[in-house]
Predict the structure.
Amino acid sequence: MNFIILGLQHVALHVADVAASVNFYQNKLGLLPLPRPAFDFDGAWFALGPGRELHLLEGRREKVHSHSRGNHFAVEVADIQAVAQHLEQQGVAHRPVKQRPDGAWQLFLEDPDGHVLEFCQLTPPVSEKK
């Protein structure tokens, strides 16, 4: 290989209604919006942690094919229980927190278009640390 991959830079999602998606990601999930270049199509960008971004792109007309055991993306968090509590306070439906066989904790939800998102905690929940 003649090149080096430095890491994942962004995830792009094709959405039907940019305003509804912006409301969900910014106001319900609390993602920080980022400046976006003046493209000739609508969209929005958000931070997914240091150096990682979510790009929303207008114009989706087809059904989304997303599932926790299929197409989805995951973000790592420090406290999965805090995420669950935040989502409940915001009225965002999600699956219960569950533990993977390797000990990591997961929580899945869908955005307004049906894209599946995973929140993942690789260390024990803060409430379990001694």
Q: What stands out?
A: The first strand starts at residue 10 and ends at 14. The beta strands are 10-14, 33-34, 43-47, 53-57, 72-76, 98-99, 105-110, 116-121. The radius of gyration is 16 Å.
